[in-house]
Amino acid sequence: MLLGAGLVGLGGALAGCSTAAVPYDADEAGAVEQPAEAAPSAMVMPSASAMPTRTRRAEVTGTVLANVREIPVGGGKIFAAERVVVTQPARGTYRAFSAVCTHVGCILNQISDGTINCPCHGSEFKITNGAVVTGPAPRPLPRKQIKIVDGKVVLL
Ligand code: FES
């Protein structure tokens, strides 16, 4: 009887073990799935490592216009498609203005002798601040926001 009780007790203990083993197995199966899920993540590691790059890009939202080397000192460059002109009045100092003439809206097309020039009626604007040097333009060129990022001019 004691032996039987002992077997029953052992059976109960085994049953308890097997009962306990089911959730353990389920947990372990879940634990196996996590590495299985981790494997694709590990495969995606280049993207994960690229996240800081994405973050950096997200910090600089805008349109890359040019390499800074394309903007001559004492001159500038007109980006007709973006309707913006970027100047470098002094080495390392960059300015950006609307490239739309404030007279009747022609796109400025030339930069020479310190001025940004309009082909339509001859208005000229200073590369330093967009002020009118020669009319008939009635107002200076509106400023545009740019940022220099990794040697690139970015229109914000
Ligand atoms: Fe530029 Fe007239 S539109 S001077």
Keywords:
alpha+beta; 10 strands; Rieske Iron-sulfur Protein; 28% strand; binds FE2/S2 (inorganic) cluster; 4-stranded antiparallel sheet
Q: How would you characterize the overall build of this protein?
A:
With 156 residues, the chain is α+β, with helices and mostly antiparallel strands. It has a domain at 70-155: Rieske Iron-sulfur Protein (3-layer Sandwich). Helix content is 37%, strand content 28%. It contains two helices and ten strands. The protein has helices at 2-43, 45-59; strands at residues 63-67, 75-79, 84-90, 93-98, 110-112, 115-117, 124-126, 132-134, 146-149, 152-155. The strands form three sheets. The chain has a four-stranded antiparallel sheet, with no helix packed on it. A hairpin with a 2-residue loop joins β5 (110-112) and β6. The longest helix is centred in the first third of the chain and has 42 residues, at 2-43. It is globular. The model is unreliable at 1-55 (pLDDT under 50). Bound molecules: FE2/S2 (inorganic) cluster (FES).
Compact description:
The chain is α+β, with helices and mostly antiparallel strands. The chain is built from 2 helices and 10 strands.
